[in-house]
């Protein structure tokens, strides 16, 4: 990769380890193993926040190295749950909602004109041996 331009080399990099090795960032393999996607996403976010990058390849390489080092260090001193790089970590955070008192309504009890079944019956109309009576249930 030494013969390639910076842009050509970046196209060939695939893993977090590839990026860290290419830019010469020393790393602990255990940290990268657990946080590789988080490190790369944070690196991407830092690049997006950086805005316009220098035209000079050497200066741009320096910026890339600094931002990658910063992204890696975020996960050396913290963890994925604390850093919350991905949207999924924000989905279950407590939500605050305001419900005005005027929007709360009370359920209305059924009116007296609604026929209720007689005690012990279901209202099916069978008068002596209703299928829900105790006698019918006993067999």
Structure in words:
- The chain starts with 5 loop residues before the first helix and ends with a helix.
- With 139 residues, it is mainly alpha-helical.
- It is built from six helices and no strands.
- The chain has a domain of 85 residues.
Précis, in short:
By secondary structure, this protein is mostly helical. The protein has six helices and no strands.
List keywords for this structure.
139 residues
- Strand/helix succession: HHHHHH
- Average pLDDT value? 77
Backbone CA Rg: 34 Å
**Terminal Cα span:** 87 Å
Largest sheet: none
What's the SSE blueprint?
Layout: H1 6-12, H2 16-22, H3 29-50, H4 57-76, H5 80-83, H6 134-138
Helix pairs in contact: 3-4
